[in-house]
Amino acid sequence: MKRLQYMSGKGALALLLGSLLSFQVAMAGAEGKRSETLTVTGLVEHRLVLGKGDLNRMKAVGKGSTAIVCDSGETKHTLKSFRGVLLRDLVDAAGVAMPNPRERGEYYVLVRSTDGYNVIYSLNELRYGVAGEGTWLVFEENGHGLGEDGPFVVFCDNDRANGPRHVRMVRSIEVSRIEAERH
Ligand SMILES: Nc1nc2c(c(=O)[nH]1)N[C@H]1C(S)=C(S)[C@@H](COP(=O)(O)O)O[C@H]1N2
Ligand SMILES: [Mo]
After folding, report:
1. What pTM was estimated for this model as a whole?
2. pLDDT at residue number 35
3. Does ligand 1 lie within 6 Å of residue 179's CB atom?
4. Is the beta carbon of 148 within 6 A of some atom in ligand 1?
5. Best mutation site among 160, 165, 167, 170 for ligand 1 pocket (most ligand atoms within 8 Å of CB)
6. CB 84 less than 6 A from any atom of ligand 1
7. Contact 106, 123 (CB under 8 A)
8. Confidence of residue 111 (pLDDT cuts 50, 70, 90)
């Protein structure tokens, strides 16, 4: 009490700001752990921000091991057992905003990573093609988080060489449309 009385107004303010700041840093640290989220955005009916818990409550499936093969033919990595949801189910959960279904072939899904390695999947192949049955958003490998490849990986199990469309460090998925010229 006495110390506070003797403290200048500025000193007390600094003390207060200092403790507020360390509190905020602590919160940001906790937030950093909690904010491992995936955003589904763009031409959607509901923008989604999903954590692993939300993904687990969707149609999450566990799968066996898959080799990730570069276009050179080299196996870069082997995904051990993994848990994921189909990219198609994620897109359907957000709902594609499509006023004119005749333009369905112009829609695509952009998978964005934090290091700028981005990949598109067309909406039609996800919905009607074989790629759709095997394009996974992976959120667990071998029962654990994905570590530095995470928080999420997307890849297509049905691609002949699945390395090029394998995306590590995924944070967002954007639905878009090519505005093709009409002739
Ligand atoms: N975010 C991100 N994902 C990426 C890449 C990358 O540079 N950044 N490289 C791709 C390439 S060329 C291949 S072959 C595979 C390799 O899988 P790996 O990174 O698990 O070894 O990841 C793909 N995914
Ligand atoms: Mo590659």
Report:
1. 0.84
2. 64
3. no
4. no
5. 167
6. no
7. no
8. very high
User: Which pair of structure tokens corresponds to residue 181?
Assistant: 């010229």
CA distance 93 to 115: 26
| Alpha-helical regions (H) of the chain | 2-6, 9-34, 52-57, 87-94, 123-128, 131-134
Decide whether any atom of ligand 1 lies within 6 Å of the 165 Cβ.
no
Which ligand 1 atom minimizes the distance to the CA of 170?
Answer: 1
pLDDT tens sequence across 47-73: 999 999 999 999 999 999 999 999 999
CB atoms within 10 A of CB 97: 13
From CA 116, how far away is CA 123, in angstroms rounded? 21
Assess whether pLDDT exceeds 70 at residue 23: no
